[in-house]
Amino acid sequence: QVPVCALLIAAWPNGAARASASCAAVPSQVGRQEPVMVLRVDKDKGYIDLSKRRVSPEDIQQCEDRFNKSKMVHSIMRHVAETTGENLEDLYKQLAWPLYKLYGHAFEAFKLMVADDGAALIKRLEEERGPLTVLTPEVHEALLKNIKRRMTPQPVKIRADVELTCFAYDGVERIRDAMRAAQALGNEECPVRMKLVAPPLYVLTTATLDKAKGVEVLNAACEACQKSIEGAKGKMSVKEAARAVSERDDRLLAEKMEALEAANREVDGDVDSDDEEEDTGMGDIN
Q1: Which of 35, 128, 188, 232 is the residue whose CA sits 20 to 30 A from 209?
Q2: CA 182 to CA 180: how far, in whole Å?
Q3: pTM of the entire predicted model
Q4: pLDDT single digits (tens) 110-166
Q5: Partner residues linked to 9 by β-bridges
Q6: Does residue 283 surpass a pLDDT of 80?
Q7: CA distances from 182 to 195, 207, 237 (A)
Q8: Which residues of 17-53 are buried (b: 16+ CB within 10 A; e: fewer)?
Q9: Rounded CA gap, 216 and 165, in Å?
């Protein structure tokens, strides 16, 4: 049997799922959504044994992507059923579920419908399944309208993590110059921002519809930043190269920044006023 990766919506302790021994030490909060691996299913007792530790980062990303796509598909199908008065289960039986089998996911099939109003896709469905009695002109129109409205391309977030240091007398200004040099490489399609996480860690970010272009621009920004700081006898090292990041990555970064900020507040009384003035303003630049 192949282990299945599922996204668990925690409903502890009254839910049907129970935590396995491997994740008992890491309990889930009620209402929190987490990818887990299905270890075994006990049909007689109604238990599903789950593990969080056995899920790799790659599996987490794939599971979250599949879950978000499925939510989008269901939202579209439910709205079509409500506006046309058709039975939701019938729409799934004749449209959505067959599309999952033919295209791997109905989300991918819906994207194809934008190009030709679904003519080729519907023709293939009819060849495979026979006449689609549920696909009336009203349903067809409502389906296309919802797909085009809800599935517009979303910008991809690109991020690079670097360490930046300069111990020259005017090191703070030289770091700011390097940040400006990096941001100058951005454009309207790929604006580049660079901000401080905690010395010496900085992040460069951009958001664009073209992932490859975004990575290219961010790599160029890293090179410009490195050239600028090394010209001032400073150093820069790339900790993580430019790559696409998910909302989860952004959330983890935000949590890290909040934790570091809280730690800094705790030791505020131990920091000399001169040091505070020196660090002020290095997070963002104009």
Answers
A1: 35
A2: 5
A3: 0.48
A4: 888 877 777 888 888 888 888 888 888 999 899 989 988 887 677 889 999 999 999
A5: 33
A6: no
A7: 11, 15, 14
A8: bebbebbeeeebeeeeebbbbbbeeeeeeeebbbbbe
A9: 24
